[in-house]
Design a protein that fits this description.
Elements lengths: L2 H16 L7 E5 L11 E7 L17 E7 L2 E7 L10 H4 L1 H9 L3 E10 L9 E9 L26 H14 L4 E7 L8 H9 L4 E3 L3 H9 L4 E10 L14 E6 L3 H14 L3 E6 L8 H11 L2 E8 L4 H12 L4 E6 L9 H7 L4 H10 L2
Parallel strand pairs: 1-4, 1-5, 5-9, 6-7, 7-8, 10-11, 10-12, 12-13
Antiparallel strand pairs: 2-3, 3-4, 5-8, 6-9
Helix pairs in contact: 1-3, 7-11, 8-9
């Protein structure tokens, strides 16, 4: 027997003996800081990696290093509470050994998760991103002699992340009113973080998030014929410029106001800041010329923009700013302006409220972007 296969089968046999011969339906890989999902599992067996033959030791912070077996939402699962990384100095064969062990144990699907940096400048801290595809800048774990009893030499990666599982996850998110993103995950070696030049390059080739794991596991799972679903938790938004710190924590917003709505914007900013939301407030006196640099700098900083003006939505300040952002920094926006409708008479304060041109509506617009 191939010595590599022997190691896999020894580990699987040890685990099988410790779980009473049961067959897990689903394999789960819990990434950095995500090990608490294990608390939701009705654990029947917790096996430290250190006790499993041929397993490595997980040294990354936030990775406890346990294999957990038990019920999760009525399904018998096996969950890796922590994974192995190439940057820890392990060869790819060792990094991905647990995936082949789970294949031998009989899993029918693999769910992988990770903590990732947001490359897409529309993302903010705390966003959930369904992985629809990946870009691999790590050594491919399938290089070398093929594990013929697991899969074919050349693995089709056209739909590396199962389309049916993605659709199901999106359906659950909609029903549960959980906002989710969808994007491309880029895996690199680490352990150093990306330079701004690398971030800009990754964005240019289509990546939305970046991390140091997941891709090798997915490659091996697909080689074994196992359907995969992947999810990233965005823990930071990567810096595209050589500045000391850029943080988009999902709690900030840019308010760009003009005319009488500048005062309403000031009141709104005070209310938002009382709720712990940072506000970049720009008094845009004119759109000819527009202070494009100020708009872009603030949008990149906060990741959300509200434009407030006493003008129709069409043809006003908001439309001009939307064009600038669409071209250089796509950013979620809300407009506080006049909708094209029949006019009415009344007291100024009443009309401002009726047309949605007051601090309360600016606050509501900002909160809707969170």
């Amino acid at each position: 027997m191939d010595s590599r296969v022997k190691k896999i089968r020894e580990a699987a046999a040890f685990i099988k003996e410790n779980i009473g011969g049961k067959t897990p339906e689903i394999g789960i890989v819990l990434g950095s800081g995500l090990g608490k999902l294990a608390d939701a599992i009705e654990a029947e067996a917790v096996i430290p990696y250190a006790k499993i033959p041929n397993f490595a030791k997980s040294t990354a912070i936030g990775h406890k290093g346990n294999f957990i077996f038990g019920k999760l939402s009525g399904r018998y699962v096996c969950a890796m509470q922590g994974r192995f990384h190439y940057y820890e100095g392990y060869p790819m064969e060792q990094v991905t050994l647990p995936i082949r062990v789970m294949a031998v144990l009989g899993i029918k699907a693999l769910l992988v998760s990770n903590a990732a940096g947001g490359l897409n400048q529309r993302f903010s801290v705390g966003d959930l991103m369904i992985i629809r595809d990946h870009i691999n800048l790590l050594p491919n774990p399938l290089i070398g002699k093929n594990f013929a009893e697991f899969g074919e030499r050349f693995t089709d990666m056209t739909a590396a992340y199962d389309l049916g599982l993605i659709e199901k996850a999106e359906e659950i998110a909609r029903k549960s009113e959980i906002p989710v993103r969808k994007g491309v995950y880029l895996g690199n070696t680490g352990p150093s973080y990306e330079t701004p030049a690398e971030v800009r390059f990754y964005i240019s080739i289509g990546a939305d998030a970046v991390g140091m794991s997941t891709v090798p596991e997915v490659l091996v799972a697909r080689h074994c014929g196992i359907p995969v679903f992947g999810m990233s938790v965005i823990t930071n938004v990567s810096n595209t410029e050589n500045t000391s710190s850029v943080l988009n924590d999902g709690g900030d917003v840019t308010i760009i106001a003009t005319g009488h709505l500048v005062w309403e914007a000031i009141q709104a900013a005070r209310e938002l800041e009382a709720q712990g939301i940072g506000v970049d407030l720009i008094n845009m006196a004119t759109i000819k010329p527009l202070d494009t640099e100020a708009v872009l700098a603030s949008a990149r900083k906060t990741g959300r923009v509200v434009v407030a003006e006493e003008h129709l939505v069409a043809g006003g300040l908001g439309e001009v700013i939307a064009g600038v952002l669409a071209e250089s920094c796509p950013t979620p926006m809300r407009f506080v302006a006049i909708v094209d409708q029949f006019g009415q008479s009344g007291k100024p304060a009443e009309l401002m409220s009726a047309y949605g041109l007051d601090a309360a509506h600016i606050v509501r617009a900002a909160l809707s972007l969170r």
